[in-house]
């Protein structure tokens, strides 16, 4: 039985990765402090409650399961929160990851897959963006991820640790069977917010900026299905087990969708027009983020298999299922 330690595995992308790892014959062991994750999302292996800043808790889990690799999702992820409280992000995302890496060192575990983000690139100087695009983050969240990338590059050069850094573009969609799905609290992501507006759970959808230098004036993003992301993580684990070298890879589809196009697609799927309001720009938003995914295709033999309509179908199915729970209402209250 090959155990993979999935740190932050009770969260959105981590839980879908556990599903994919188990389908590929691994046993995912979730290590999570449940600060943002959900106990009912841990379904494909054991759950261990603990914090990555707690060395003793980490040592106990490494001793118990002797994982072949670690997949590390645990982080604070909300850009707005990072601007309000940068130190919380450096403590959790940077110091927490250093603590995890130290525990891996003590346990002799030398393979890590790390969740990074296109937010490390900042404002695009070329679209689509490949992995050599300059990395100039626009906020503390992006900086915290870039700092960990730096640490991992140093460890790859000067220790026996090997890592695959995965830079996701916009994760979206849900498990086909609606067992798990996207549940952030508070929710800030465009697709769940628009679906909740279509369902009448929020009063309206606010478009953050319609004066960008993009075809329709709204921001363009590369939405990638969470199960495509999950598949890439399982492949990255296999790649490291087979002796692959440290690398950093973009995970996106290569297709851009504007906020307006996204809202049109969600209205079409739901059959329910919903109120849309134009707001000012949200600080820290880049106008256009689209991936060049050639490296991930080449190195992992990966390719995205699902398109925007599958993303919206599975997200819609999740939000209309009984498993969705009760979404937080603080970011766009029902009037
Ligand atoms: N959602 C996206 O679109 C997106 C895009 C790019 C990158 N990412 C990255 O992917 C990762 C997962 O994102 P997500 O959307 O699944 O977030 P999420 O909040 O749903 O999951 C994060 C999980 O980590 C856990 N966690 C946080 N701090 C911890 C700590 N100190 N110790 C133990 N567990 C801790 C939380 O409880 C939660 O279960 C994050 O690292 C995020 O930065 C996400
Ligand atoms: O209520 C909303 C929410 C979002 N948007 C727009 O929709 C697009 C997508 O926004 P999301 O918040 O869904 O996603 P981001 O591109 O901001 O976020 C992505 O990049 C972030 C860093 O910038 C984090 O990594 C985050 O986890 C990841 O989903 C953006 O242009 C945003 O301005 C709106 O118009 N209204």
Automatic annotation (TrEMBL):
CDD domains in UniProt: UDP_G4E_1_SDR_e (cd05247)
Domain of life of the native organism: Bacteria
E.C. number(s) listed in UniProt: 5.1.3.2
Any one GO molecular function term: UDP-glucose 4-epimerase activity
Functional pathway: Carbohydrate metabolism; galactose metabolism
Catalytic activity: UDP-alpha-D-glucose = UDP-alpha-D-galactose
Record domain NAD-dependent epimerase/dehydratase: where: 4-252
SUPFAM superfamilies linked to this entry: NAD(P)-binding Rossmann-fold domains
Recorded family membership: Belongs to the NAD(P)-dependent epimerase/dehydratase family.
Protein name (record): UDP-glucose 4-epimerase
């Amino acid at each position: 039985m090959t155990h993979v330690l999935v740190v932050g595995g009770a969260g959105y992308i981590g839980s879908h990765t556990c599903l994919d790892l188990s389908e590929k014959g691994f046993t995912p062991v979730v290590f999570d402090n449940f600060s943002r994750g959900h106990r009912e999302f841990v379904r494909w292996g054991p759950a261990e409650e603990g914090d990555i800043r707690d060395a003793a808790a980490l040592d106990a889990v490494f001793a118990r399961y002797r994982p072949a690799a670690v997949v590390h999702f645990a982080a604070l992820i909300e850009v707005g929160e990072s601007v309000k409280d940068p130190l919380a992000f450096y403590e959790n995302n940077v110091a927490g990851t250093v603590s995890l890496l130290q525990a891996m060192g003590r346990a002799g575990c030398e393979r890590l897959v790390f969740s990074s983000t296109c937010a490390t690139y900042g404002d695009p100087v070329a679209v689509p963006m490949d992995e050599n695009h300059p990395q100039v983050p626009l906020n503390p969240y992006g900086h915290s991820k870039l700092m960990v990338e730096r640490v991992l590059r140093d460890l790859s050069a000067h220790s026996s640790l090997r890592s695959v850094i995965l830079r996701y573009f916009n994760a979206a969609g849900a498990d086909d069977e609606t067992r798990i799905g996207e549940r952030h609290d508070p929710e800030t992501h465009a697709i769940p917010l628009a679906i909740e507006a279509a369902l009448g759970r929020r009063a309206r959808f606010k478009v953050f900026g319609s004066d960008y230098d993009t075809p329709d004036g709204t921001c363009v993003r590369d939405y990638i299905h969470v199960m495509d992301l999950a598949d890439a993580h399982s492949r990255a684990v296999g790649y490291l087990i087979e002796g692959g070298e440290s690398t950093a890879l973009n995970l996106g589809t290569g297709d851009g969708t504007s906020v307006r196009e996204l809202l049109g697609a969600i209205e079409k799927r739901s059959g329910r027009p919903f109120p849309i309001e134009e707001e000012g720009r949200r600080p820290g938003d880049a106008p256009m983020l689209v991936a060049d995914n050639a490296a991930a295709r080449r190195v992992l033999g990966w390719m995205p298999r699902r398109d925007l309509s599958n993303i919206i179908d599975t997200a819609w199915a999740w939000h209309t299922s009984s498993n969705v729970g009760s979404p937080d209402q603080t970011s766009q209250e029902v009037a």
